[in-house]
Amino acid sequence: MKIRSITYTLDLNRVGELEYNKKVQQRIEIIRKEFDKGNVEIRTVRFNTSLLELKDELFFEDYRQKLFKVRELALSCDVRWFNLPLDLWGCPKAVFQTNCKTILLLIREFRELFVNVLIPAHVSKDVLKIKALVELMRDISKISSNGYDSFRFGLSCNSVVNTPFFPYSFGNSDNGFSIALESVSPILESIKSFKSDNRVCNNVDLLNAIKKDLIQHFCVLDAILDKTNLKQYFTGFDASLAPFPNEDISVLDVLEEFGLEEFGSYGTVYVTESLTYMLKSALLESGVISTGFNGVMYSLLEDKRLCASNDNDRFDINSLMLYSTVCGCGLDMIPIPGEFIVEEIASLILDVSSLAVKHDKPLGIRLLPIPFKWYGDRTEFNMDFLADTKLMSLNNTSLNI
After folding, report:
1. Nearest residue to 302 (alpha-carbon basis) of 190, 134, 180
2. What are residue 157's DSSP bridge partners?
3. Of the candidates 141, 144, 96, the residue with the CA atom closest to the CA atom of residue 119
4. pTM of the predicted model, to two decimals?
5. I want to staple 246 with a disulfide (CB 3.0 to 4.6 A). Which of 131, 194, 372, 384 is the partner?
6. What are phi and psi of 152, to 5 degrees?
7. At what angle do helices 342-358 and 317-324 cross, to 10 degrees?
8. Cα 358 to the chain's mean position, in Å?
9. How far is it, in rounded angstroms, from Cα 234 to Cα 129?
């Protein structure tokens, strides 16, 4: 089983101190070395900062200097991306809007920066702040001509601390680290092995066989962590089924093995819920620490086969919201027209937030408005980690807010 990401949490106020940086470098080297010895590939290591709970202004120059230090540390550790999680809801409305402008400046300044804004449970009391975030989303999309930069901005509802998947990550433990796993390929291997030994099988038997194999994978990884002598800093695995576009790893490959002929058809909710339950059970029975989503991620622009289904109009945004009640991520990597009604996107955020609270599960929102494009037009990213598809339609109706 490959590791998608080691997400390592930093104290933003200490980055740049010689001894602190040295300790971070040494620990990351140890983690990489031990997993390499165990023949486990780590795709990326990423930096996450501890959650900033702001009640006052986010001063651009102050955080610009802090993030320059994070960038320097990242370069010294061969880390490509870093994430800034923010809780802005203690800010007065005027300060909140000012902070949104500062976030825009920081994202424009640091091309390797992700930003995660936490959404509180009772967000309906702060609709004006939600609308300010929607306007920020639109402004970020205009940094580049293809809307790519919106990929680095997310909203987290009912968040789980130490989630390793960007941008929905935030930490509360300095030098703590969590691990995002790649579960799709090992699950497909388990399915192939089970079906070769069993000509007739049902989904229950198949799920149990997969769970048994996953437990073994988790225990192997956990044993490697023991060898690092850093286990006390480990904050959990997230074993979500997540796509990987530049290797054509699609979540839909797994769904098909359970008899789902077309994503979006009746039965999609059932298969999604079955896989999510199996993942959570495997983690629980293995005894390892878990965190994050641990579900099935329908991250549209990261899954080539999901993009093809979207091109054929097999599902819509309402469908994805339905699936999010039993799966892992919410509305993630959804391309939408560059011009939209602010109130409609704000209403969409309220819907996702309500689902997260109702079902007591983390859900994320990462919409990508594409400048100068409309429903039916295609994205044009041409990047190794993003697929292309046509823009999803909006209803052009909303709450009167």
Report:
1. 180
2. 119, 363
3. 96
4. 0.94
5. 384
6. -100, 15
7. 20
8. 20
9. 34
